[in-house]
Amino acid sequence: MNEDNKGMTPEAEMLVNSIKWDLKVNNGKLSENLVEGALQESEKRYDYHRGVTTCIVTLPTGHKVVGYAMIMKECNSDNILGAKVALADAKKKLWNLLAIIAKLFMKECK
């Protein structure tokens, strides 16, 4: 375990190390591959209620992001399409969350 990552779970340490590596090899920027990888390693749960689909993504660190998909009329409800849209929304929010975590390590990568 890296001394800087003391107290982290192995999963959280792996995510932090992935972020650090991604920043290093991409000149201080996060890549879409990092976001996709984090999404793959995360738990995803979908809920459907009265025309609203939510996608709750829980990172190995315990951080959560929630994506939403809403329809105007319940009779037009399509759970598969709603799940795709909610996941895309959660992915945007995940990118933002990873960027916030990355900011903590930016000076280490210079």
Summarize the structure.
By secondary structure, the protein is of the alpha+beta class. The chain has one domain.
Query: Stretches where pLDDT falls below 50 for ≥5 residues?
Result: none
Q: What is the overall number of helices?
A: 3
Strand content: 15-25%
The general outline is elongated
Number of domains: 1
Describe the structure.
The protein has 110 residues and is α+β, with helices and mostly antiparallel strands. The chain has one domain (3-109). The protein is built from 3 helices and 3 strands. Strands 1-2-3 form a 3-stranded antiparallel β-sheet. Strand 2 (52-58) and strand 3 form a beta hairpin. Helix 2 (32-41) crosses helix 3. The longest helix has 25 residues, at 79-103. The model has no long low-confidence stretch (mean pLDDT 85).
List the SSEs and their pairings.
Blueprint: H1 10-25, H2 32-41, E1 43-49, E2 52-58, E3 64-70, H3 79-103
Helix pairs in contact: 2-3
